Amino acid sequence: MSQETLSAHTESGDILNKVAQVTLAFWIMKILATTLGETFGDFISMTLGLGYYAGLAITFTLLLIILAVQIGGTRFHPAVYWAAIIGTTTAGTEVSDMMDRSLGLGYALGSTLLAAGLAATLAIWWYRERDLSVYPIRKRDEEILYWIAIIFSNSLGTAFGDFLTDNLALSYIQGALVTAAVIAVVMLLHYMRALNDILLFWIAFIFTRPFGATFGDLLTKPLDKGGLNIPREYASLITLALLVAILWLSTRKRKESSIPIR
Fold it and tell me: What's the CA gap between 227 and 241, in Å, rounded?
């Protein structure tokens, strides 16, 4: 499809929604994607011994390829979308670790910088669109800002989760309980209509990252550090299998519900 044709389709509204609808299945898959991002990111940088700079280069190259496919399309493809989510959460792991361990900024300062980046992205989004709705997304410029915000959110969630376990010396279970409490409050505020749903979405998106990451650490860290000592590659494969299964079930259910009754 040419750029002129694509622009015409965009202006006429013919390009379909490009992102996943926010449902219970969405949040379950998001948590699994963050767990996979944690284990796979650590597998690249630690298990393979490539280091954070090389790991970041690899993960961002893969992420850019996937995002090019995602943004270049004209409709929602679940497999491509969730591959992009996994890519952003894996890159987030590398960004957080590089800021702390390679650049020496620490998780607290790193979290502050990433929060500022997210706030700036959302401010630009609002200035351009006067709307921060995350579903549906049909405009290409809006989708680019959507993915930039997601990269910042996943990186911020990683840094915050590491701050809980490294700086505050919480166990992985305690860290999961803290982030689970935040998510529970977000759910309560959503049902009470106490805060804007868009704000609640981004808060939940940030905090599901450390929530899922703590399970990644629980699976792979040594026994003396409170983990189960499962090899990172096995933990990644198990989590990927669960994510694919839920994606298949949710996609199948959506197709069945769209079949007209005669």
Answer: 21
Distance of CA 187 to the CA centre of its chain: 18
Q: What is the CA radius of gyration of the chain?
A: 19
How many other C-beta atoms can be found within 10 angstroms of the C-beta atom of residue 67? 22
DSSP designation for 224: G
Number of other CB atoms surrounding residue 1 within 10 Å: 11
pLDDT digits (tens, 9 = 90+) for 68-123: 999 999 889 999 999 999 999 888 777 877 787 778 888 888 888 989 999 999 99
Cβ pair 66, 80 in contact under 8 A: yes
Stated pTM of the model:
0.84
Inter-residue contact 116 to 169 (CB < 8 Å): no
d(CA 123, CA 146): 12
| CA gap 171, 217 in Å, rounded | 10
Residues, the chain, total? 262
Between CA 215 and CA 234 the distance in angstroms is 14
Neighbours of 75 (CB within 10 A): 10
